[in-house]
């Protein structure tokens, strides 16, 4: 009798197991993504996505990545599938991924359409706020079957973010011009993740109201905005020489006060846990600016 009772229950549990393994999630573009089981072969189409995968405990599942996927050190050994705007579709297909994680702002829609046409699930990642980095870590952990690691990384990120916000977000505002590049002269608007970092530190992005996410501007616009601090990135760890080009404008408050600052791009331009390293550095720089008033 006991066997007669247990047998149907065991059969029911076995039948339900595959359903529990299936993953249904909505990506950052609002598109539903379905996986029959956690992804074991993942291709990353942006350097920040590669870094997020490692941070969420899924680094060993990444079989392909784009150029400049250089963090952590193990990411440098992953086979390349081109650049984020020049994806080699044949290389991606040859890797037989069961998931591609893409970047809406960096990857071309035509490439993503071709991947979907091949039957490869595509998950779009597009963080716009600091909190979205934690969300991305949790999502990636779920997609890769490393849910516990992803959730732990997300929680640690949120705690550090909250501590920085408590310390700096209510400080007296500092008018900031963020110089993403010099030729052409580029900045970010208020919807960009970097603008959220500026807000976290009590900064006021002087170009927040521009309509484009990463607009091109001119020197006259910067002079008219009269920023109290200029923060630049560049291409690597070295401080860009062009940051000092602003010194010719001696009446510009940022120049007059000596508030020309630099943050390595991978600490503030990548949508990863390391953005809080950049935030901590920026917050300290804006404190210097306040002290020079």
TrEMBL record:
Hey, what's the signal peptide range on this chain? Answer: 1-21
Q: Which Pfam families match?
A: Peripla_BP_2
Supply the alphabetized keyword list: Signal
Asked whether the UniProt record includes Ribonucleoprotein among its keywords, one would answer: no
Keyword Signal attributed = yes
SUPFAM superfamilies for this protein? Helical backbone' metal receptor
Q: Which residues form the Fe/B12 periplasmic-binding domain?
A: 41-290
Q: Which domain of life is it from?
A: Bacteria
**CDD domains found in the cross-reference section:** BtuF
Matching entries from PANTHER family are given as:
MOLYBDATE-BINDING PROTEIN MOLA (PTHR30535:SF34), VITAMIN B12-BINDING PROTEIN (PTHR30535)
Q: What is this protein called?
A: Cobalamin-binding protein
What is the organism field in this record? Zoogloea oryzae
């Amino acid at each position: 009798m006991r066997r007669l009772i247990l047998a149907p229950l065991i059969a029911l549990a076995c039948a339900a197991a595959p359903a529990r393994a299936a993953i249904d999630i909505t990506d950052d573009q609002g598109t539903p993504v379905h996986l029959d089981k956690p992804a074991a072969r993942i291709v990353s189409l942006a350097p920040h996505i590669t870094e997020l995968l490692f941070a969420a405990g899924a680094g060993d599942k990444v079989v392909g990545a784009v150029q400049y996927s250089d963090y952590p050190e193990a990411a440098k050994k992953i086979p390349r599938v081109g650049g984020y705007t020049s994806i080699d579709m044949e290389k991606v297909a040859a890797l037989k991924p069961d998931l591609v994680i893409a970047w809406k702002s960096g990857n071309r829609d035509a490439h993503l359409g071709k991947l979907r046409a091949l039957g490869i699930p595509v998950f779009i990642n597009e963080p716009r706020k600091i909190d979205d980095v934690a969300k991305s870590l949790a999502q990636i952990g779920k997609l890769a079957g490393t849910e516990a690691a992803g959730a732990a990384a997300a929680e640690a990120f949120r705690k550090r973010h909250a501590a920085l916000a408590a310390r700096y977000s209510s400080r007296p505002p500092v008018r900031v011009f963020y110089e993403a590049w010099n030729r052409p002269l580029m900045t970010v608007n208020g919807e960009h993740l970097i603008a959220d970092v500026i807000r976290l530190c009590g900064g006021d992005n002087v170009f927040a109201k521009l309509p484009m996410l990463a607009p091109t501007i001119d020197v006259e616009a910067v002079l008219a905005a009269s920023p109290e601090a200029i923060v630049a990135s560049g291409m690597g760890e070295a401080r860009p020489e062009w940051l000092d080009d602003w010194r010719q404008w001696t009446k510009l408050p940022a120049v007059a006060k000596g508030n020309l600052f630099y943050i390595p791009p991978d600490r503030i331009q990548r949508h990863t846990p390391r953005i809080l390293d950049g935030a901590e550095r920026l917050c300290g720089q804006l404190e210097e600016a306040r002290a020079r008033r």
